[in-house]
């Protein structure tokens, strides 16, 4: 019984650290990851750009609706330093967004540290309680 509890606890711990968003991820380095193919048929993320803004990295991306209906989404930026470590990832909340049919919305964010050199933009479907 104790082994079973330890296995379940370990599985829950590992799943809490999983980098998946159950949506899409687009990186300023050009990488794109699809965690949910159905969602990717409705939404795309394109035109990721970055620039220096008063010593901090500013990033933006274009979220594009591919469907005729309105969708409620969430997005967030995760910032990384030159060694690939995330900067203040745990303190960043998902931001809500409503996108109408075939609409395109540019979202942007600013790094929490001047050490940021790249970012990832995550987009997922918002689910209400």
Please describe the topology of this protein.
Elements: H1 2-16, E1 24-27, E2 32-34, H2 37-40, E3 43-53, E4 56-65, E5 71-80, E6 86-87, E7 95-99, E8 104-110, E9 118-125
Antiparallel strand pairs: 1-2, 1-9, 3-4, 4-8, 5-6, 5-7, 5-9
Q: How many helix segments? A: 2
**Total beta strand runs:** 9
Strand content: over 45%
Topology pattern, helix = H, strand = E: HEEHEEEEEEE
What average pLDDT do the residues reach? 86
Estimate the global geometry from the Cα principal axes.
Answer: elongated
Assembly type of the shown chains?
A: single chain
Span between termini: 34 Å
Specify the helix fraction band: 10-25%
Largest sheet: 6 strands, antiparallel
Low-confidence stretches: 3-20
Tell me the Rg in angstroms.
17 Å
Structural class: mainly beta
What key attributes describe this structure?
six-stranded antiparallel sheet; mainly beta; three-stranded antiparallel sheet; elongated; 15% helix; single chain; 2 helices; disordered N terminus; 47% strand; 129 residues
């Amino acid at each position: 019984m104790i082994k079973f509890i330890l296995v379940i606890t370990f599985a829950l711990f590992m799943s809490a650290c999983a980098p998946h968003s159950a949506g899409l991820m687009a990186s300023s380095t050009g990488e794109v990851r699809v965690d949910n193919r159905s969602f990717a048929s409705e939404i795309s993320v394109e035109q990721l750009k970055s620039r220096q803004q008063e010593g901090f990295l500013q990033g933006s991306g274009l979220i594009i609706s591919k469907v005729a209906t309105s969708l409620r989404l969430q997005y967030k930026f995760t910032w990384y330093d030159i060694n690939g470590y995330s900067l203040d990832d745990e303190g960043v909340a998902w931001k809500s967004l409503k996108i109408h049919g075939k609409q395109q919305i540019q979202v942007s964010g600013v790094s929490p540290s001047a050490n940021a050199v790249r970012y990832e933009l995550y987009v997922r479907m918002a689910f209400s309680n």
